[in-house]
Amino acid sequence: MTDTKRDGQNLTKNFMLGVIFTFIIAGLGFLLSLIPGLDHIGQLACAILLAVIYRQIFGYPNQLKQGIVFTQQKLLRLAIILYGLKLNVDAILHHGLMLIVKDAVIIAFAILAMIILSNIFKTDKMITLLLGIGTGVCGAAAIAAIAPIVKSKDEDTAISVGLVALVGTIFGIGYTLLQPLLPISNQQYGIWSGSSLHEIAHVAIAAGPLGDHTIAIAMLAKLGRVFLLVPLAFIFLVYMKKKNQRNNKDENTRIQFPWFLIGFILMSVIATYVLGKVITLPHGVMSSISQVTTWLLTAAMVGLGLNVNLQDVKDKAFKPLLIMICVSVCVSILAYLLI
């Protein structure tokens, strides 16, 4: 066997081991999320936590880097594309137009408030921006979609995803404690939850105890924010291109068109107008696809988490975290006033 052939086989082996490695940690994150108390945090946040701990103890596994990078980039984009299957465009357009308007106000407020406070308190601008996007839109999925457009470092992306998951979980639990004390109907509570909480999972935590009808209206309000992820991504795309032109950036720094968002739109259209109407899938298929999407997203976040240095988190993320908590409280109040 020639040295070239042997080297090629080793590269392929290390590539596959890198991909498998991210899924092993994702699986351990899933098991960790089954522990009472950690079950509210979720599989994704638990997996990121394990990846960060691994990095601090053993360092970055450079031999497996090619497979890890493939997971955190390519499989992440595939997860976002499949995430589009969760979005029912028809339900939003026919029943949630006013919710979309309110969602747009909330998204704009969250992002602008984070940017303004970042400038006032001199925080890390990229992490603060990503936290504003995650708070305003749909948590980890929104951060993952916008991060490559704004040229975020992998470490900053992972830090932002972890903080959004943590804060969103705390708020989701807090909503369930507040609900009996609020002078609003279950439907209004569902709209409030969906319009203000960070992730779809957090909305489910808050609205779940009140039954299917409340969950349905909460998810409709939440999916309106997911729907707005696409125009928001194109706004950032245009902004970054103009910014590069002003700064006379060279070809290597130009922003690539986020083709995976076209896949996201296509999947949304298929989910809305094809599945169940033109094509009927066997029972449980959509649930299986949703689980695959979660696993792909979790494995991708593991790849990002391996880039995190805890000293940098301490130096860069503490003040953005405090600002995010304040903005999240303001988003909750704003959404409550809009219901």
Unreliable stretches, pLDDT < 50, 5 or more residues? none
- Percentage beta strand: under 5%
Roughly how much helix do the residues carry, as a percent range? over 70%
N/C terminus separation: 70 Å
Order of SSEs: HHHHHHHHHHHHHHH
Mean pLDDT: 85
What are the defining features of this structure?
339 residues, mainly alpha, 15 helices, 76% helix, 0% strand
Summarize the structure.
The chain is mainly alpha-helical and 339 residues long. It is built from 15 helices and no strands.
Task: Outline the structure in words.
Helix 2 runs parallel beside helix 14, helix 5 packs antiparallel against helix 6 and helix 8 packs across helix 15. The chain is built from 15 helices and no strands. The relative contact order is 0.18. With 339 residues, the protein is mainly alpha-helical.
Secondary structure blueprint with pairings:
Layout: H1 3-32, H2 43-58, H3 65-83, H4 89-95, H5 97-121, H6 125-136, H7 140-146, H8 154-178, H9 186-196, H10 200-207, H11 212-227, H12 229-246, H13 259-273, H14 285-305, H15 310-338
